[in-house]
Automatic annotation (TrEMBL):
Keywords: Kinase, Transferase. SUPFAM superfamilies: Protein kinase-like (PK-like) (SSF56112). GO terms for cellular component: serine/threonine protein kinase complex. Residues 18-40 have a biased composition (Low complexity). This is STE20-related kinase adapter protein alpha. It comes from Aceria tosichella (wheat curl mite).
Length: 373
């Protein structure tokens, strides 16, 4: 199994690790902390092995860095196929990072759904784990939403695909625990895929289904602004899959407003806000808090956002979906993913002349050819 191979590699048994890792195809998450960056694209000089196949490091040519440990890459021979290449320095992962990585590898091997990111190949190269994924040409939804947010129908397309992924995960007894815009990747055809599975937890333990979980996610700090109140509270009542629905509500605000809710607060302030029932909302002309602001006292950036927000109005269905349902403080009053797919906010897509998320995305943002860099 691949998880065993990773553990062996860290322990120094490189031969065993390589043999095990190349025997399966799994995936990793799009965000991993405490990982070292791989070498720059121009340092790839392994052309002699370009014909060794896709489970060889020499098969790939790195084009540009996408993130700390992620590159856009293509096949070195034809330069026609584009991939997202993640490179993990195994010796530099601590025990918790390693555990999270293994969880991600296992889940992405088991799960099969068009709205969940999949893996193409993974293999050991020297002291590194290389994970090859399909390249999502529009990258992540959070980058597209900055600085003013996305149109409502574009958000509806993104949330619909995310709900379908969550419905699948929940049916398979998994709580994602890391739903956020940066974990929603957008492919060239406009389809959205959920990633970030390393934080997921299985509600089946020792053959029994647990209706409430009590374990706090490890390495959780990057995700706390999206966490539900019940996860943060860590009380005897615990949390269940409805916590993902709350995170989805935060994501709706993130996509609409172009900023992460609570990100201007210290963690303790955010915790107090959430535990007292305060929740973010969609910023538009119906927001009374905006009326009370004085634009002439704002910075140029904030003033631009102010006039954008004051000049638009989201539908009552979108407000109800976000504030009334997903961000409801009481998890019992949050609908499950399947029911939210039937909400008017999602159903409006059937009446819209837009047939795809691509109708709302700037084609200049598309980056899908290796020879573009």
């Amino acid at each position: 199994m691949v998880p065993n191979s990773v553990e062996k590699q860290k322990g120094g048994s490189k031969k065993d690790a390589a043999g095990a890792a190349t025997s399966t195809n799994t995936t990793t998450t799009t965000t991993t902390s405490n990982t070292a960056a791989a070498s720059a694209p121009e340092q790839d000089n392994q052309a002699d092995g370009a014909n060794l196949g896709p489970e060889s490091a020499s098969y790939y040519q790195r084009i540009q860095r996408l993130d700390t440990d992620c590159f856009m890459a293509c096949d070195k021979l034809t330069k026609k196929q584009t991939f997202a290449l993640r490179i993990y320095q195994l010796e530099q992962l601590d025990d918790i990072d390693l555990k999270l990585l293994i969880n991600d590898l296992k889940l992405c091997k088991q799960l099969k759904h068009p709205n969940i990111i999949r893996n193409l190949y993974n293999f050991i190269h020297q002291d590194q784990l290389w994970v090859v994924q399909p390249f999502c040409s529009f990258t992540s939804a959070d980058r597209l939403s900055k600085p003013f947010g996305l149109p409502e129908l574009a958000i509806a397309f993104i949330i619909k695909d995310t709900l379908m992924a969550l419905e699948y995960l929940h049916l398979h007894n998994l709580i994602h625990r890391s739903v956020r815009a940066s974990h929603i990747l957008i492919k060239a055809d406009g389809r959205c895929q959920l990633t970030g599975l390393k934080y997921s937890v299985n509600t089946i333990a020792d053959g029994k289904k647990l209706f409430y979980m009590h374990q706090y996610p490890q390495k959780a700090r990057p995700n706390i602004y999206w966490f539900s109140p019940e996860i943060l509270e860590q009380n005897l009542f615990g949390y269940n899959y409805k916590s993902d629905i709350y995170s989805l509500g935060i994501t709706c605000c993130e996509l609409a407003n172009g900023v992460v809710p609570f990100s201007d607060l210290q963690p303790t302030e955010m915790l107090l806000d959430k535990l007292t029932g305060n929740a973010p909302r969609l910023l538009d002309s119906t927001c009374q808090e905006l009326v009370q602001l004085k634009p002439n006292e704002m910075s140029t950036e904030d003033r631009d956002k102010y006039f954008v927000f004051r000049g638009r109005q989201f539908s009552s269905a979108f407000h109800n979906f976000t504030s009334g349902l997903c961000l409801n403080f009481d998890p019992h009053k949050r609908p499950e993913a399947r029911k939210l797919l039937g909400h008017n906010f999602i159903k409006q897509l059937k009446k819209s002349p837009a047939t795809n998320l691509l109708d709302f995305l700037d084609p200049s943002l598309l980056n899908h050819h290796c020879d573009q860099s």
